[in-house]
Design brief:
The protein is α/β, with parallel strands linked by helices. The chain has two domains: 107 residues, Nucleotidyltransferase, domain 5, CATH 3.30.420; 160 residues, ATPase, nucleotide binding domain (Nucleotidyltransferase, domain 5), CATH 3.30.420.40. It is built from ten helices and 13 strands. Bound molecules: zinc ion (ZN).
Length: 314
């Protein structure tokens, strides 16, 4: 096959989405499989996704040039390893080598939020400085400048969820207190509204409509926390565009309108904030966008990243 086809894969907690893209980055085929947690199941699902894409395109697995995998957890791109991906029940996995053995293809790994940032900038045709804010169970962002993913010195860039906003605030799973993630994330929403159960984002709006005042208060807290995160991103990075993705974006226009209203209120109180035009920079990631899978395919060509330990030796 003449065209170098690349595979990108987004291994999430509930589903694995894989795409095949051509040299221009256009998606030629897509497959979606349920993710089952644990090392063996994750590897089997990833291998099956590659085989299904080959089948869909009527080619052999060996016709693909590379596989890029976006996955949550701590990624060592240099070693091709992922560790502490708790929602996949993976403590440590040499995923690049193991999937490479099964497929015969070169495999590279990328943090899932970074992959989504690169894919969103590509799919939405965004130039300049693009921030992707993942408003999921946790809170993190990716940064793309002129089409290039910015990972920082050792890949830590974008862990905005652990910016300390209140040293006396609520405990965070990272072991500190008052991190931004304790105010703006699915985990924060669970704390604000324990009655909402494990997936409060799904039942929040119906509960508000039914007159649940606790749900309304939780919504307002989440809106304020999200607006705070957006304000920080603009002040830190001054991006042209902030794409908002992650599970909580499925709260939809009502949520985004409430965030915009909060930003407008701050702008009325402060000429300085008004000049930032934060709301005008926002763009929800379209529902069903394969941004993370596409971005993982695109990132596969990037050079390997030094580990933090190696970076510190310089
Ligand atoms: Zn934290």
């Amino acid at each position: 096959m003449n065209t170098p086809l690349r595979i990108g894969m987004d291994i999430g907690g509930t589903k694995t989405e894989a795409v095949a893209i051509d040299a221009a980055g256009d998606v030629l085929a897509t497959t979606l499989l349920p993710t089952h947690s644990g090392v063996a199941a994750v590897l089997a699902t990833a291998q099956l996704a590659v085989e299904q894409l080959a089948s869909a395109l009527g080619c052999a697995v060996s016709d693909f040039a590379s596989v890029g995998v976006g996955i949550p957890g701590q990624i060592n791109r240099d070693a091709g390893e992922v560790q502490l991906a708790y929602n996949l029940r993976i403590e440590h996995l040499a995923l690049a080598a193991r999937l490479g053995e099964r497929t015969g293809l070169p495999v590279s790994l990328e943090n899932d939020v970074n992959a989504a940032a690169l894919g969103a900038a590509h799919l939405l045709g965004l130039d300049g400085t693009v921030v992707y804010l993942n408003l999921g169970t946790g809170l993190a962002n990716g940064l793309v400048v002129d089409g290039e993913l910015q990972r920082g010195a050792c890949g830590v860039s974008g862990e905005i969820g652990h910016l300390p906003i209140d040293p006396l605030g609520r405990p965070c799973p990272c072991g500190q207190r008052g991190c931004l993630e304790t105010a703006a994330s699915g985990a924060a929403l669970r704390t604000y509204w324990p009655a909402g159960g494990e997936h409060p984002g799904r039942s929040l709006l119906p509960a508000i409509d039914a007159g649940d005042s606790d749900a309304s208060a939780a919504f307002e807290h989440l809106v304020r926390g999200t607006a705070t995160a957006l304000r920080m991103l603009v002040l830190l990075l001054d991006p042209h565009t902030i794409v908002v993705g992650g599970g909580l974006r499925l709260l939809g226009p009502r949520f985004f309108d409430a965030v915009a209203t909060r930003l407008d209120e701050w702008a009325r109180e402060s000429p300085f904030i008004a000049e930032l035009h934060i709301g005008a920079r926002l763009r929800p990631l379209p529902e069903g966008s394969p941004a993370a899978a596409v971005g993982a395919a695109l990132a596969a060509n990037d050079p390997a990243q030094k580990s933090c330990a190696d970076a510190a030796k310089r």
